[in-house]
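User: For a benchmark we're assembling, each entry needs the component sequences followed by a predicted structure for the full assembly. Here are entry 17's components. Please fill in the structure.
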Amino acid sequence: QVQLQESGPGMVKPSETLSLRCTVSGGSISGYFWSWIRQTPGKGLEWIGYIHYSGSTNYNPSLKSRLTISVDTSKNQLSLKLRSVTAADTAVYYCARHNLGSDYDFDHWGQGTLVTVSS
Amino acid sequence: DIQMTQSPSSVSASVGDRVTMTCRASQGISTWLAWYQQKPGKAPKLLIYAASSLQSGVPSRFSGSGSGTDFTLTISSLQPEDFATYYCQQTNSFPLTFGGGTKVETK
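Assistant: Structure for entry 17:
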């Protein structure tokens, strides 16, 4: 059974870079698209961007200028870096695997990690 | 961006009830729609994809329908474990977007 686990600092200072990692176990990262999604009480669920195991990416335009998503197939990991964060970036961050049957919905999710932006 | 609007925002129901909720897209998305269930403190769980295809392992009391701009998720006979918040997501175009959710509460 594929499992995804997000990891990273729970708190980041304003203007700094939010860095998260997602480790995939029980299956290979190869052959799939992988996304980062965040959730806040105010804005709900927001798709951040995806990466294909080959390295191709697609980012939400609202975050594109501050965002980098990368993949390390040798470690079965994907990473997210969001630069110049503000309080508005406080959210629960999820990594998720795209459904092979339909491409752009998500059939496996990590448990999520809360990141708070605060000084 | 395609805006997804869910209604109602909450519904009160009892075990055994038939529950229906809707999702409307701001422009046509064919059948590129997914439904998720989320319980407090947990990640969303995929229920339906391509508007009406049941994800493996999901009980058959869940069903989805619709195309274009209007979609429906139906729970035919509400079970205790179905009290949760349900979200729709359009998979037609980028950026991918979600609805605001419908919370199914106990009456």
